[in-house]
Amino acid sequence: MEGETVVSREGFLVKRGHIVHNWKARWFVLSKDQLLYYKIEGGKKESHPRGIIPLEGCTLLCPCLDYENRLLVIKLKAKNSVEHFLEASSREQRDSWAADINKMIRAFNPEPKEQMNSSNMSFETSTNICPSHIIKVMQEASSGIKEMTIGEYGNTYKLCFTGSTVIDWLVSRNVVHSRSAAVTLASLLIEDDFIKPVGHKSTKAMWNIAGTEQFLDDSTALYCFAKNERKTDSSSEKIEIPHMELSGKIVKHGFLMKQGHKRKNWKVRKFVLRAEPAHLHYYDPCKEKNDLPVGGLSLRGCLVSALEDNGIPPGVKGNVQGNLFKIITTNDVHYYIQAGSRAERSEWIQAIKQVT
Q1: What's CA 43's distance to the chain center, in Å?
Q2: What's the pTM value of the predicted model, to 2 decimals?
Q3: 101-120 residue pLDDT tens
Q4: 131-232 is classed in which CATH architecture?
Q5: Peptide linkage before 277 cis (omega within 30 of 0)
Q6: Which CATH number fits domain 238-355: 2.60.40.420, 3.40.50.300, 2.30.29.30, 1.20.58.480?
Q7: pLDDT surpassing 80 at residue 336
């Protein structure tokens, strides 16, 4: 990842967006003067950071109780007054991240303005943009975006609109205050499967180099609404969890990457290992209400083993980072999981074997 001489620690945290206040899992790298965060694409950290938080003049608040459904949040306020909200997987992880970040802040601030939680803190008042609400308004017949039939490179596409039309709409409705911010917001709408590219030009933009926006502010790039596709995709992971499964003693928890069974894509999940009965559940840390698992498996009679890092094993898709392990259940269902490091992988394997 980064050079060994400058990296203090690295790992997953869940970050709140600046424009769209949704939560996304990102890989964070802490160095002596900045905190960088990367998007995970295809099971691997992108080569270029999605953002940088300078630590000089930064203040830290831990615990941060701004979100009643998220009690593991650290708040960083940068020198330019931009606020960053980062969520850890456990109280121990939150406190250790806060301690390590504050240690780096001390290098620039002999007396850092570390704050204990206080209800009297002043916060910037900004509108919480909800992607699903934006899409509903966009699709209103009277004031929304008009869908048209448009041709591109000899092909005809129905019920679509151009990229510049979306940007014009977002700016004119004062959803954002600049075209660059509108492009960022539209890219997030694509990432969340609310809008999808149509045709060659917009589809090609989805494969741009890391760090560039996916959405094109272009009068010849075509897009359409994804309609109900997002609901269909997200519901595939929802299952009913018997209460007895969640009653076991929590042995270990943390962020890991899991490969989906159907789409074979990699997503960051918060895993919770329980004993008596032995179960491993996983949660979507980006959901507003993330207190219920989106999946799980009984560990009784299962097999768990590390996978070699020299090459991609059969059954694993994507250009993965490494540190893989596999769990095979008694009914022969294979779960492929990635840890953040070899040491973390060994800890999880050992913990799972102990409860089984």
Answers
A1: 12
A2: 0.67
A3: 999 998 876 554 444 343 33
A4: Orthogonal Bundle (1.10)
A5: yes
A6: 2.30.29.30
A7: yes
